[in-house]
Amino acid sequence: MNALKLYGISDLRYEQAQPPVIEQADDVIIRVTVTGICGSDLSRYKKLGPYVEGMVWGHEFTGVVEAVGNAVTHVSPGDRVAACPTIACGTCNRCLSGVPSQCISLTVIGSKQPGCFAEFTKLPAANVLPLPEGIAEEAAALLEPAAVALHGFYLTNLQPGRSVAVLGCGNIGLLSIRWATLFGTKTVFAIDLDPQKLTLAEQMGANVTICPKQKTAYEQLMEYTDGEGVDLAVEAAGSPATSAQVLALPRKGGEVVYMGIPYGDVPIERFYFEKIVRNELTLYGSWNAVSAPFPGKEWTTALQMMSSGRLDVTSMITHRLPLSEGVQAFADILQQKEFFGKVLLYPK
């Protein structure tokens, strides 16, 4: 089968790979119809390289069941499915305590086992969710990042009528904006340096957009909120600078949830660090998108919201490309030859 394999930093190749086969009774082989490029894929491509050299890459996708093991009963060949790409051991103390997102051996397909930048991929039956009618395949390909953003919100105490600031309007940031509106938030502030991302943020439900080129996000937000700040600030940019700056955005007694991954040291100026203490902030780290019972309410909620039409992600999609153009797509995205939102790849 055709696949994208990551061999090293900036070394991605489109070549042949062995197709998956049924080995365990709970195996499900899925023919991939649509797969998405994640922001973490870009960081690994540019900065980190693969966990395993030459691994079939990718973890966001939807598809159709091709074959199942003899213990699988909830899906059959031909069924449209979504899939949670996260593999939790199910036996460590954290898994047994009902928090599989903290599993000591947590992994994701595409890292240490073959992923979905391919014609076929394989997952355990517990990771495979039947796709309700009414959800388009393109939308279902964004189910995993939607669940990632929702997982972060479930950690917080956000209530209807409150205010949220989202710092960074990439894919996770945009989905965070949409979830904030679905939580009944009164005002959602979207913060980014890119005006095109801010336009997408408005389409996803942001009430106020802030570009911090001329004046800091903190200064502008304080003007909008009469010096109060917001109830919840979401760090979704994943940069060292914004990882510190986000601490100045909540009100006294407010919350911060970190969804971005900075991939570098985070120097924090005294002004920002003191906000934690003086404003008595609550900080959350949000990792992955799973909870108990596995794969968790993040997935069932996202599926229901997509099925009802309330979680509309189509405005995020800017490029639809064949998988064979994936190598060039990664290079183009990082060279910023044009504006890229969500990029979808099609194996066939």
TrEMBL record:
It comes from the Bacteria. The keyword NAD does not apply. Pfam families: ADH_N (PF08240), ADH_zinc_N (PF00107). Residues 8-345 form the Enoyl reductase (ER) domain. GO terms for molecular function: oxidoreductase activity; zinc ion binding. Keywords: Metal-binding, Oxidoreductase, Zinc. Its cofactor is Zn(2+). InterPro entries: ADH-like_C, ADH-like_N, ADH_Zn_CS, ER, GroES-like_sf, NAD(P)-bd_dom_sf, Zn_alcohol_dh. Belongs to the zinc-containing alcohol dehydrogenase family. PANTHER family: L-THREONINE 3-DEHYDROGENASE. This is L-iditol 2-dehydrogenase. It comes from Desmospora activa DSM 45169.
